[in-house]
């Protein structure tokens, strides 16, 4: 018994343009014609998901934490490279210089990566929480999440440091969101 899509959800004439042909047996040299017509656009279980242009909270968490860790690690490794080069002494062998550079790069890269990964984790959690509470996805959520992230990150240093870090976080996120909107508007991608 073959699967037949219901006529209410599937209009064969319109969807042929948005589908690509697929033959799962093409590598086996089996003389079978193309069997399936797969959609080229994303499919959603519910219609509401198609209208939402937003990642889920789990995808957000993974994305911001990963991007933060990667950016911090690369930046820290670069800083460690410079520190390792400065710390080399005139009588060092090549192996000793390389070892010193690798140790400094690894140590500093790990430190920076962990810090920025935690910042990304806090930001993603706060932004997803704001979207859930306000039931809207706009710039306010991002800026408030930036304020909260900066304040939480420096909360142990005292209220003044937390307020300054919160203000910096809000300004950085505001600039990032503004830059993203300008890029969308003026740069054709």
UniProtKB/TrEMBL annotation:
Q: Which domain of life is it from?
A: Eukaryota
Q: State a GO cellular component annotated for this protein.
A: TIM23 mitochondrial import inner membrane translocase complex
Q: Which UniProt keywords apply?
A: Membrane, Transmembrane, Transmembrane helix
Report membrane topology: Multi-pass membrane protein
What GO terms in the biological process aspect are recorded for it? protein import into mitochondrial matrix
Extract the InterPro entries matched here.
Tim23-like
In this chain, composition skew of type Polar residues spans 1-16
One Pfam family assigned to this protein is Tim17
Q: Which GO terms describe its molecular function?
A: protein transmembrane transporter activity
Instruction: Give the span(s) annotated as Disordered.
Output: 1-20
The signal peptide, as residue positions, is none
Enumerate the subcellular locations listed in this protein's record, separating them with semicolons: Membrane
State the protein's name.
Translocase inner membrane subunit 23-2
What organism is listed for this UniProt entry? Actinidia rufa
Lineage, uppermost ranks: Eukaryota, Viridiplantae, Streptophyta, Embryophyta, Tracheophyta
């Amino acid at each position: 018994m073959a699967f037949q899509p219901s006529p209410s959800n599937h209009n064969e004439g319109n969807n042929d343009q948005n589908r690509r042909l697929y033959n799962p047996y093409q590598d086996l040299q089996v003389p079978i014609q193309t069997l399936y017509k797969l959609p080229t656009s994303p499919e959603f279980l519910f219609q509401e998901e198609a209208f939402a242009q937003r990642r889920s909270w789990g995808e957000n968490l993974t994305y911001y934490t990963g991007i933060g860790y990667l950016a911090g690690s690369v930046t820290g490794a670069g800083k460690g490279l410079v520190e390792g080069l400065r710390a080399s002494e005139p009588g060092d062998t090549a192996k000793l210089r390389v070892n010193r550079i690798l140790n400094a790069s690894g140590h500093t890269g790990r430190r920076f990566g962990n810090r920025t990964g935690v910042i990304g984790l806090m930001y993603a959690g706060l932004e997803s929480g704001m979207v859930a509470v306000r039931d809207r996805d706009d710039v306010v959520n991002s800026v408030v999440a930036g304020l909260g992230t900066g304040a939480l990150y420096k909360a142990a240093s005292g209220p003044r440091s937390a307020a300054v870090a919160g203000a910096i976080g809000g300004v950085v996120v505001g600039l990032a969101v503004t830059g993203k909107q300008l890029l969308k508007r003026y740069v054709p991608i």
